[in-house]
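Work through what follows:
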Amino acid sequence: MPGGVSVTVKVQPKSRRPGIQGRSESARGPCLRIGVNEPPEDGRANRAVCAVLAQALHVPTSAVVVTLGQTSRDKTLHIAGNPLLLIEKLEIL
């Protein structure tokens, strides 16, 4: 997708500590760990993880979409926007 960056995340649904929980390794390499309160039903966890990342990066929720791993805990998210600014923001998470 043009105009943005993709980031690999590992999602913890029904987490007691929602939000960005640091970095770890996944099957696809380094990733962000994100906890969400929502259960993995009807796309609720997917919408929640997009909202958490959007809030952390100060972008609209609509700018973050799941591009890979709809039904997996390991997902690839695409964030629309200026790649240079987004990469800079992702580095400090």
Observations:
- Helices lie at 44-57, 83-91.
